[in-house]
């Protein structure tokens, strides 16, 4: 099958690659680039385990072709921390026991990363609506809501202090 | 040592991070960075991908399979069918229930989406291309979908391969579609009690077919190393050692030439206990091609083929006196096991521990009869976040006692109080054969009633009913039986259901421990370290816990049925105690005193009545350098623990719902869960387990069902149709606890992962029925979808 050249930015780094037009973004990330943090849970964009941030929006990379990301700017779980310094969301998930098996966690974190930019001080209900495209079978969400709240408070305090 | 000496006792205790500490999880570091290592993350050199051609029919003869065009597809290397596996005797496999299951359909298909051929290709896209080109010719047969017709004289025979056998692994049977009949209790005495009773109630109560559906589906990477003949299989296994033994038994490869590795597993909930065709086909394909072969299940494959749960069609009855005191319980069950009996439970228990239907109640006599049948549906019958058939049993008794309350006019909390096994009755021998180890049910319920102001809620409900509004209060006071189990009555393919822990203390006082269980999110790396920390006085941060690699971990039966803490957790404590006993001898030797002079204090042995002591850290070094004469060097041991009994966690749950009488929308206003899991190892992890279990209970009660049409098409095997609640639907949970330590467990723990599912489902169901109780509604079939609730509202004319 003929392949197509794409170039995009992933976690701040330029990437160029040849991909088949039918290659899904999640497979491109996981299999071509070995960025295995984003997971596959349903292949029908219901579960959100594959959520990545593309051009400032949360997208489910199991139903996006890699070629559609051409020229785009992508953030995945691997790009969330600042070097060894955890993002406040990662810290929140650790502190509030916001994960168990860890499979939905990267997608959940990347969705929450965008949510807090869309709405920096969300209510608990707004958090619940904001992550409703990401399913978790282990936690019952309560601690995830707390974890996001923790991160929002931490980010807002740091910004208030500036 | 000097730093430690300056700390107070409390500071030393806190520095250990042992039992009772809300210790943050050790495994989180990799998961929050996207550095987990799940099976689909594994990539081996030269790895191929395999996937299945699946049946479009529920019941049909296979006339032919034509792979010619598929083999022309670029990247496709092989198409494996039953014929190819037959010379290796791998086309059928033995199940954990004594039956046989087709690995690839052999001459006929028995359920929709059954595996017919395994296409092996260079990548998953090429495999999919190949699958499209395989042509299967069928001759359709009449399907059998409704289990209630399975034993009819003219029912289609599903399993031609065993049609003439008078048993299929679990005792005598009387029809080609019959799998087993299982009875327990005293039928005569029970019937007599029903004859004589003032009050009897009977209800048909179905627990629909549902599915555990972890976010990670099943999968594996099988790799046969031709140079040394060793087969390594990485996969989603809740019980890796059992998989190794079964693979050895069916392939005749010696067990030392098989390595099973469970990497990080993205949730199990019972889905990942069994052996599936994908594992066998990937292994066979690797042996044949000499390449590693990966198989990863799609979500549709997952929901429609591997490990359904429940599908229990129950008729439950209670006999009681006028005061609501239960005199007898009787249950008849039709169990739909699908096309092969692949249910995963201890082999002597074809209906699991369903005879726990006495629940938390002192019932003098009872009788249970369960019949298992084949249908043209996916095989399974796993314990979805519960011990074996315990959620079915708890659902039945908790519904029945509510119905009895309505019939007698006794309050639903009060009738439970009147029937509880009392604290002084433990150990309590139930009429259906269990020895309940411990419990305090009245305290649990009283605490719960007070916490939610039950009387106030009932008052509010009465006022609302006056106004025509619908409010329901659901009470569930459940008892589980978990921690399988005593080897005398629990085995899987003959393997006793013990579990194990090996502990090695390094010279500088840190530890590695390995267990026969496998965490699928429960946090074993964190909590089992806490048990060792308390027993050995070594900080939990210095204790590494490993599971899941059969080349390194001691043999164990795995993680399911809430058995990890009751069985492997006990082995962990006992192994640590063996080490401490040796450490004491070393301490006496180093301090030049007798063992009798020594007492244990948090992290050290101390000479009684003096300041002289030696820490565990220093004893560890001495174990490798300065030991008494005749002693072996080192500080390590393994414990295999055969529990003397099961454990019996219990709880009292209260659920309050408001129902919109025009739309049928059910709002869970409040859910209060009091759990007693005995000794609490990590309260943070326990709360997390309860939140998750309650959410799965909510999903089951409110929406989960795998539905088939009359021709055997599975309807809705995707997450579009199968209900996994999001954060929006999921209620807020309030947790509470009492502590009644298990008397026979070394640290008094009972297990917690499954209680919230077992107790949660009836709490939801009872709340919704309770909203209609004043209108003489006694039961509504699960799941309580908005459509079904609306239908009832409409029938009752309440939506006008």
Quick gist of this model?
The complex is a heterodimer of chains A (162) and B (800). In chain A, 35% of the residues lie in helices and 15% in strands.
Topology:
The complex is a heterodimer of chains A (162) and B (800).
Chain A: E1 4-10, E2 13-19, H1 25-32, E3 51-54, E4 57-60, E5 73-75, H2 88-95, H3 105-118, H4 124-130, H5 142-161
Parallel strand pairs in A: 1-5
Antiparallel strand pairs in A: 1-2, 3-4, 3-5
Chain B: H1 2-6, H2 9-16, H3 28-31, E1 48-54, E2 60-66, H4 68-72, E3 76-80, H5 82-85, E4 92-94, E5 100-102, E6 108-109, E7 115-121, H6 124-133, E8 135-140, E9 178-185, H7 187-196, E10 199-210, E11 219-225, E12 230-235, H8 240-251, E13 258-261, H9 277-289, E14 293-296, H10 299-305, E15 308-320, E16 326-336, E17 365-373, E18 380-382, H11 390-408, H12 412-419, E19 428-429, E20 435-436, H13 441-452, H14 454-466, E21 470-479, E22 491-492, E23 495-496, E24 499-505, E25 511-515, H15 524-536, E26 543-547, H16 564-591, E27 598-601, E28 604-607, E29 613-615, H17 616-623, E30 636-641, E31 650-659, E32 666-676, H18 683-702, E33 707-708, E34 714-715, E35 734-737, H19 755-771, H20 786-795
Parallel strand pairs in B: 1-14, 12-13, 15-18, 16-17, 25-26, 32-35
Antiparallel strand pairs in B: 1-7, 2-6, 2-8, 3-7, 4-5, 9-17, 10-15, 11-12, 11-14, 15-16, 19-20, 21-31, 22-23, 24-25, 24-30, 27-28, 28-29, 31-32, 33-34
Helix pairs in contact in B: 11-19, 13-14, 15-16, 16-17, 18-19
Describe the fold and architecture:
The complex is a heterodimer of chains A (162) and B (800). Chain A has 162 residues and is an alpha+beta fold. Chain A has 2 domains: 4-79, Ubiquitin-like (UB roll) (Roll); 88-161, DNA polymerase, domain 1, CATH 1.10.150. Chain A is built from 5 helices and 5 strands; from the N terminus they run ββαβββαααα. Chain A has helices at 25-32, 88-95, 105-118, 124-130, 142-161, and strands spanning 4-10, 13-19, 51-54, 57-60, 73-75. In chain A, α2 packs across α5. The longest helix of chain A is centred in the last third of the chain and has 20 residues, at 142-161. The model of chain A has no long low-confidence stretch (mean pLDDT 97). Chain B is of the alpha+beta class and 800 residues long. Chain B folds into 3 domains: 3-36 and 499-641, Aldehyde oxidase/xanthine dehydrogenase, molybdopterin binding domain (Aldehyde Oxidoreductase, domain 4, 2-Layer Sandwich); 39-141 and 218-296, Aldehyde Oxidoreductase, domain 3; 308-484 and 645-795, Aldehyde Oxidoreductase, domain 4, CATH 3.30.365.10. In chain B, the strands form 10 sheets. In chain B, strands 3-7-1-14-11-12-13 form a 7-stranded mixed beta sheet, sandwiched between helices. In chain B, β31 and β32 form a beta hairpin. In chain B, α16 packs across α17 (616-623). The longest helix of chain B has 28 residues, at 564-591. Chain B is globular and about 80 Å long. The chains are: A alpha+beta (162), B alpha+beta (800).
